[in-house]
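The instructor's notes for this session suggest beginning with a concrete chain rather than abstract definitions. Hand out the sequence below and ask the class to guess, before any prediction is shown, which regions might be ordered.
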Amino acid sequence: MKLQNRLTNYLLCAAVLLACSCNNENKPTGTASTNAADTSSNAVQVAAIIPYEILNEYEHDPAAFTEGLEYKDGVLYESTGQYSISDIRKVDLKTGKVLAAEKMERRYFGEGMTLLNGKLYQLTYREGKGFVYDPATLKKEQTFTFNAPEGWGMTNNGACLIFDDGGNVLHYLDPATFKEVKQLTVTDEHGPVNEINELEMIHGFIYANQWQTDNILKIDTATGRVVGRADLSTLRQRTGIAPISGNPHGPDVLNGIAYDAATNRIFITGKNWPKLFEIKLDN
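After discussion, reveal the predicted structure:
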């Protein structure tokens, strides 16, 4: 009986790992996993430059220290940071008005957030805890722990939660047990890519803010390679935000990516930015 139980557990773990590795990470038919100029086996794959177009701009709460951003069924969800004032909220896209909010306990610093299977998941910064909410009511339903020194950005691939801790590793969690089932190391043509921040899964690739830059990185989920890079510094200029100060505590950084899969729209904002933008990248 013990042998049978061990075999059953092994098969369940294998099934979760396979799902986390594959679900929703399939590239579109006919699309290469990299747009690098030279993809020969011996060449260093240089990340492609991704152009972008601004399609719309909307009002955004300048008091929101944005750490996580999601869009689903006409509602914008946002996780905000800073001790004593962190919350999770629902926002009207067109007006920027906060429709509902659930304030976190003062000891928590809100971080990345994602929607998976009808649940809203949120990380904390250095507390090692995460929360599960009902997206309709923002009522907290569950608390979980994760094994990383910090929580930063968060997304999912339809089967697993995926988060980063400010380094160059993406952690895959089973949403039923919150156990880590996989890691993916992020690199580019120069080596490890650190300070990966807010995350969003789009067409099987992870798009990520990189802290203290105006860049969005396009990460191949099969290899961890950065295959594209978009410089969104003109959004900062258009918003009236000064150039990056280099102050690690400054609220001026680009942070927040949301994707509307139903209409293929991407929304971008920053910490304490008064504007939120709808843009077109290579989507």
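Then share the key points. The chain is about 10% helix and 45% strand. The domain at 49-280 is CATH 2.130.10.10 (Methylamine Dehydrogenase; Chain H).
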